[in-house]
Amino acid sequence: MTKTSSFTAPKGVPDYVPPASAEFVAVRDGLIRAATLAGYGHVELPIFEETALFARGVGESTDVVSKEMWTFADRNGQSFTLRPEGTAGVMRAVIQHGLDKSAQLPVKLVYAGPFFRYERPQAGRYRQLQQVGVEAIGVDDPALDAEVIAVADAGYRALGLRDFRLEITSLGDETCRPQYRELLQEFLFDLPLDEETRRRAAINPLRVLDDKRPEVKQLTERAPLMIDHLSESAKSHFEQVLGYLDALGVPYVVNPRMVRGLDYYTKTTFEFVHDGLGAQSGIGGGGRYDGLMAELGGAALSGIGFGLGVDRTVLALRAEGRPAGDTATCAVFGVPLGDAAKQRLMVLAAQLRAAGIGVDLAYGGRGIKGAMKAADRSGAKFALVLGDRDLAENTVGLKDMATGDQRQVPLDEVAAILVADLAG
Ligand code: HAM
């Protein structure tokens, strides 16, 4: 075995360390909160599942399944995969726990955590990515589509994000998509396309419409679009979703060429795009997946949800010059001068923390100068300076770090003084 002198995180996997980790937490928790405010209940699910769940749920022909899965055999030879996305796992859990039989539909769930895709790493594209996602299962109501979208929009806006847009389209349903697919294939097969693109047209013709090469773009300019070939019911569903979004004041642009990387989508699909991120501009996406639950062995229930990229939202906020989150600062910093004082301050710190006040201490016995410097750097509002003589007199120095004023206060009363001061 070769000996390495230092270890680094796996390629394409970001670490979040202070102070940037505060942005990460603020984004994740802010997006979760938007969902909680709309009645979504938290689910905590495994980060690995049977490989077949994703193959069946996400679709064998997708890049996510065919090229990007982190798959491994356990010690018994059973194949598991680190979850590349959240929807399939949520469906599995809903079926397993009988939530699909619930009398109270829709079942509304929110989740957050890491997902794994073996992609070529680049700015904003990671092999371990973090999402906040919601799934609303069991009611095929355009108002629910609009709610899901509005929750994402509200989550981004509450974080201060501004320069993003919502792109939306309808992928139709089983009554119109097969016919449209044939129509599109007929159109594509008549074009002078290269072999590779022809193959793609045979397997997943929709993806050819998303081809970024100018020559292909030009060739497909007049291609038939799903949105012009929707069934009456899919069309009416889509129009109602847009109507609700208008009423809610959620701005959108219809992008009939939108292609999502997962196979389960039907009807409403959408993406949130941020232009400050370069190539990896998708900060979130989702849609309806009305056949997925039945496909995975559950009741024939409809569903809609989203996955919002936490990493990319952090980057988008930074690109706008509005980093999220406050760096973790404690309001109070203890400066002990001597061992007995240290112990007393530790007890006081525990008391104050129990009262909800953040307290940090100078450790390592570094003398008053170094400890006061640490208090300064910590950003605390108050420093507590305790020496052996103070301890004998049962007082403590309370220093206001902004003004520099320091006064002696009774040690037994300082907790109450700080609580009164900092709570207000
Ligand atoms: P997705 O579009 O594959 O959808 O991923 C959602 C979001 O995750 C993307 O918009 C992006 O912000 C972020 N993301 C994806 N891959 C990466 C990556 N390699 N690096 C950084 N961020 C990434 C889903 O996963 C669906 N499960 C969403 C959904 C829920 N649809 C219905 N319900």
What does this structure look like?
The chain has 424 residues and is α+β, with helices and mostly antiparallel strands. It is 38% helix and 21% strand. The chain contains 16 helices and 16 strands. It has helices spanning 20-36, 51-58, 63-66, 87-96, 142-158, 177-189, 195-203, 205-208, 214-219, 232-248, 292-295, 310-319, 339-354, 367-378, 388-393, 414-423; strands at 41-42, 48-50, 70-73, 79-82, 107-116, 128-137, 164-170, 253-254, 266-274, 282-288, 303-309, 332-337, 359-361, 382-387, 395-400, 406-410. Strands 1-5-6-11-10-9-7-8 form an eight-stranded mixed β-sheet. Helix 1 packs across helix 12 (310-319), helix 2 (51-58) packs across helix 4 (87-96) and helix 5 (142-158) runs parallel beside helix 10. It is elongated and about 90 Å long. The termini are far apart. It binds histidyl-adenosine monophosphate. Histidyl-adenosine monophosphate binds at residues 85-87, 117, 119, 124-126, 129, 131, 133, 135, 261-262, 282-287, 289, 305-307, 309, 311-312. Keywords: Aminoacyl-tRNA synthetase, ATP-binding, Cytoplasm, Ligase, Nucleotide-binding, Protein biosynthesis. Residues 26-336 form the Aminoacyl-transfer RNA synthetases class-II family profile domain.
